[in-house]
């Protein structure tokens, strides 16, 4: 690998065969593949719910599958079809989905240096920069396992998400009215399931809570799709309050 210094250690005799660290890399790789496949399969199955929700919102099977193939960011996809199902303007729905997808750009900034991928494959890899692939890659101790985790998670999740999206869309078409079966609740339920593991700290929980309050308060007043855009203000508001509190704490510490 260019630009990365490597340590070369020469061992002889039995040290080369059974010295410290022998077999460590295969074991580490196996663990990364196992974890990455676990994430890919667990989240990939949620594509079924998206397929059902999208078909229930009035999108065709082709349109639904195109969203998963070309957009491939679950939260944004659910936000888009959810706003359309509620009768929202397509441009407003797309704007809400766009703002949710912006977070992937920040993941990309972090992963770019960590993975160090060749320029030729970066545009393809960028399509797999989502919550799950970023989490698996960033949890690894070195570049080799980070690349492996990113690739296995992205490949398994992309393949399964698109397959289950197709199955869900076809199944919803066969069932008819998804609301009659209660399947219209599948999208919001999966969205909350995807969101819950990210709410680890006080700041994240405060932003999510404020966002929920903003949506509930705006639903009766604004057109469908717009409350999601308003809820996006929760994050900068919470961060601003956190910054003020940190500054005040610093100033009080300085006075003492």
Automatic annotation (TrEMBL):
InterPro entries: Brnchd-chn_aa_trnsp_permease
This protein's UniProt keywords: Cell membrane, Membrane, Transmembrane, Transmembrane helix, Transport
Gene Ontology annotations of biological process type: L-valine transmembrane transport
Transmembrane segments: 36-59, 148-172, 178-199
Localization of this protein: Cell membrane
Region of interest: Disordered: 1-26
Gene Ontology CC entries for this record: plasma membrane
Its membrane topology: Multi-pass membrane protein
Primary residence: membrane
Family from the record: Belongs to the AzlC family.
Protein name: AzlC family protein
Organism: Streptomyces bingchenggensis (strain BCW-1)
């Amino acid at each position: 690998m260019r630009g990365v210094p490597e340590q070369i250690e020469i061992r002889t005799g039995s040290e080369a065969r059974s010295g410290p660290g022998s077999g460590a890399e295969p074991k580490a790789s196996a663990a990364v593949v196992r974890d990455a496949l676990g994430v890919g399969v667990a989240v990939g199955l949620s594509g079924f719910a998206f397929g059902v929700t999208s078909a229930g919102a009035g999108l065709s099977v082709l349109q639904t599958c195109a969203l998963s193939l070309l957009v491939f960011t679950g939260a944004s996809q659910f936000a888009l079809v959810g706003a359309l199902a509620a009768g929202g303007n397509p441009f407003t729905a797309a704007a809400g989905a766009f703002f949710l997808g912006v977070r992937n750009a920040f993941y990309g900034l972090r992963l770019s240096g960590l993975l160090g991928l060749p320029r030729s494959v970066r545009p393809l890899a960028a399509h797999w920069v989502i919550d799950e692939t970023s989490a698996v890659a960033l949890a690894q101790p070195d570049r080799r396992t980070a690349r492996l985790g990113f690739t296995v998670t992205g490949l398994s999740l992309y393949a399964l998400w698109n397959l289950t999206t197709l199955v869900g869309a076809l199944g919803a078409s066969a069932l008819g009215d998804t609301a009659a079966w209660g399947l219209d609740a599948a999208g919001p339920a999966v969205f909350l399931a995807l969101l819950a593991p990210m709410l680890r700290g006080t700041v994240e929980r405060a932003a999510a809570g404020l966002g929920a309050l903003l949506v509930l308060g705006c639903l009766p007043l604004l057109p469908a799709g717009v409350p999601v855009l308003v809820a996006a203000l929760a994050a900068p508001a919470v961060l601003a309050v956190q910054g003020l509190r940190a500054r005040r704490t610093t100033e009080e510490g300085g006075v003492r």
